């Protein structure tokens, strides 16, 4: 599997929700008001990226050790059909986003995917996600 980071398009983001106390939220608003950040989201993204940067060595070592794809792994119908024909099953491990093409049937996914572990986001049809449910870690 590819250990190189694949760039994810700017539109490929996921919304998260966090709870903050009123004082922390006020501090964020103050920094936005003073022009340090364009908005709350800008500050929060920057803070998360800075925190992740402090752990970059651990992340790189773990990605390598666990043989994770870093970034985006696109799983096509053709790839799954080839695995099925070869009598093999894919074991998908991704840090970022795994995307199973919309034309993949639940039956094909069950036959060709042995396991799937995604630290991040899994995009697949609801039927494929339901079929792979026990194999998703």
UniProtKB/TrEMBL annotation:
Gene3D superfamilies: Met repressor-like (1.10.1220.10). SUPFAM superfamilies: Ribbon-helix-helix. InterPro entries: Arc_rbn_hlx_hlx, RHH_8, Ribbon_hlx_hlx. One of its GO terms (biological process) is regulation of DNA-templated transcription. This is CopG family transcriptional regulator. It comes from Noviherbaspirillum galbum.
